[in-house]
Amino acid sequence: MQALHQKVKELLESGKVQVVIGYGEGSGGKSRPVFIRSAADAAKLVWDDRCHQNLAVYINKPEIKKMGKAAIVAHPAAVRTIVQMIAEHQLSSGAIIVLAVENDTLEELTDNSSLEVYAQSHPVLFPPFVVKEIEDIAALSAAERFEFWQNELEKCFKCYACRAACPLCYCERCIVECNQPQWVSVPSHAQGNFEWHMNRAMHLAGRCVSCGSCTIACPAGIPIGLLTIEASRIARTEFGFEPGISCDASSAMSSFRNEDKETFIQ
Amino acid sequence: MPSNNIYNPYLMRIEKITDEAPGVKTFRLKFTNDAEREQFNFKAGQFGEYSVFGEGESTFCIASSPMRKEYVECTFRQAGRVTSALARREEGDVIGFRGPYGNIFPLEEWKGKNLLFIAGGIALPPMRCVIWNALDLRDWFKDITVVYGARSVADLVYKYELDEWGKRSDMRLTTTVDPGGENPQWTGKVGFVPKVLEELAPASSNTIAIVCGPPVMIKFTFPVLEKLGFTPETMYTTLENRMKCGVGKCGRCNVGPVYVCKDGPVFSYGELKKLPAEY
Amino acid sequence: MKSITHDNLLKLLAGLADEGKIVYAPVRKGQKVFFAPVQNMQPVVFDYIQTTESPKLVLFPRYEPLISFEYQGKEVKVDDPSAAAPAERVLFGSRPCDAMALKRLAEFFDRDIPDALIAGRQKALTVISMSCIKADADCFCTSTGSSPGDICGSDILLTPVENNGYAAEILTGKGASIADRCSSLFSEIPEIRKEQYLAKVEKAFSHEEVRKKLSHAFDHDIWNGASLRCIGCGACAFVCPMCSCFDIQEEGTAKKGSRVRCWDSCGFSLFTLHTSGHNPRHNQSERWRQRVMHKFSYQPEAAELTGCVGCGRCSRACPSDMNLKEQLQDIAANVETV
Q1: Which of A185, C159, C259, C271 could cross-link with C194 by S-S, CB 3.0 to 4.6 Å?
Q2: Domain containing C56: what range?
Q3: Domain with CATH 2.40.30.10 in chain B
Q4: Could you tell me if C228 and A63 are in contact, meaning their C-beta atoms sit under 8 angstroms apart?
Q5: Chain A residue with minimal CA distance to C57?
Q6: How far apart are CA B142 and CA B111, in angstroms?
Q7: CB contact, 8 Å: B276 with chain C?
Q8: Is the CB of residue C270 less than 8 Å away from at least one CB of chain B?
Q9: CATH code, residues B114-238
Q10: Which chains touch A (3 or more CB pairs under 8 A)?
Q11: pLDDT digit string (tens) for C153-189?
């Protein structure tokens, strides 16, 4: 943590960045996102096992962008997110200084290749309980799985915390807000909830870097990340798309290969 | 309303559709239920929620005079889902109507005064209601002046009425179009509304100014009026925040302690100045 | 005063469900506790500080039809759901802050132009609340006019006392009708001082002081940076027992369907967006300010009604640790009195 404080102090003092997006002390023993703008405040940053939120969600927030060039404290999943954002042209290369943190290590990543090397050497590592959730669901029959999700999604009241917490859910106008035609039913009934979560999983297929922020954000406790994790597993095993490791990768859902089975695009 | 459920609309038949300008139509609506028509009353400045079943509701002012009780008229520009669906309706179709909602232009308080109406573009409809109301109560007021501008000649709404108003001897009408919006037949003025108003320089003593138009027009018109001697209490406008319920519940149109739908849409400039500028 | 044992309380609730009343009670779903209709009382939980979702859904459900319609040629047939008498409901396990919120919510919907759908449900609702013997750092009911044993809004208030039983305050005619019909389940005990059993919630700020200060704080520096970490979801509004903003949407086909009310939030960027593209509350800090101002300044000013009961759900639910209590303490401490 001292190395982090020192690094942030240097970055702000030298004027290399005007703001550092990081974690600080929150309420009730929680950590919270903080935006450090002066070297004197560098010591307010914390980095420990409470720091799960994917801070990349703040990179393009207008109020933050207005502050000037930013550095961001990024756990491995956030680094993958930033790589994916660059690949999807949501972030230009070199636009942000990434302070990659993991356990006691700190690395400053400033260009695409260092980001890629870091991301590739830090593959997705699920905590044991997520591994178990994934295994448990895989073991269910289709009917049981449908029942599982019915029970889970029944809790959803469509606050869209999953969407808001996801740095890759960046559409200015989400499909749920398009009403000509009305693609997704607005009320949070069974149909509307299924439409929303299936749509989100499909839109993140091959793009979700499995950071888990959506699950952590969900106030209803729905393990919502399992859907996008599964969609990304299919994109990886069936189509060979691995998100978050290459800054110029194409997207699974919007690229076509000659060997693809679908004919509609030919 | 047809029941004590405030969201249950009157069923209205479209009696007449008038094409006003590109994308702008006026509907004349008749109650399908005579008893409902009998007990329906409204005052100038109020609005309604007009709906196409299966598409949704949209908010517009009532554009006809409250003294013409056999129908309700509304004028709208096709923009989103509901107005597009409305634009596809034909004469004889049934649509929903909830209202009247909101406060009113205080015509009673304005007795014995001159009235100066200033409107821009599609904002004439909220004004038309009160203009007709004032003309229907002509002896209440001294001079009645209307200044109306639009982007181009084609964008002027209620052209048939503008002709009629222009010929009347008991009111003064000035029409203008933005520079470049005129055509060879155009006999009105050319210039933005605030500019034209400045040239006309109407007297401010004993006069109420009512301004309706796009935000940018309002922004430049109030200072002109202030220069002419109008005070915040003698200038009125209407706010058009986004609304859903129309009855002060859904929260969308909340600005400071007021709900535009319930406490507005008519505000004096003096009242507006006390509100946060979230409109 | 009356008391009831734990077993008899379960019998009472089961009896109400057997009578055909819809009994909403706290049940565990995964890691969280929700209010849900229960038929038998086995899944009902008692060991929560606060449920995740508030009980406002018994008055103001997540979604409900306002009308239904069907085209018949050129004509339209419209049905009004408020014509049917609402089902009798019993809410069990609401906290005193929740009960106060329900009362204020019903008052809000009843003001000026009464909402018959909400009023009908309120009339058919009996509220059996449970005093708080535990609180956490996010609770601030004592700062907003409630308290761990407050009776406001409840028909019966139970307070856990010794020997696995509850002191029962029968507070209204609705409460009395239940207590009288099931009198064998209750016993008479001498008056107790219930305060000794209640959680202690320190007053964090004065809502009167906050109200006074907010009346001139719209342009105050306090808002700068206050909501930088807010990600603009609707979690706070949807778990709030008093947030009442809603959307109206069409469901079904173009021929037959219903017009539906569903929860909405002033924190969403599209909430105030005009069709023209103009947005009166363009950025998230303006929307956060609106949330605070509406609850603690605008509503009290317009109707003497604070839009918050200090249940703390928003702070517990927020993915970015936006903490309402902290914000209000900040206002109380740092906005000048004029």
Answers
A1: C159
A2: 2-334
A3: 10-101
A4: yes
A5: A157
A6: 8
A7: yes
A8: no
A9: 3.40.50.80
A10: B, C
A11: 999 999 999 888 999 999 999 999 999 999 999 999 9
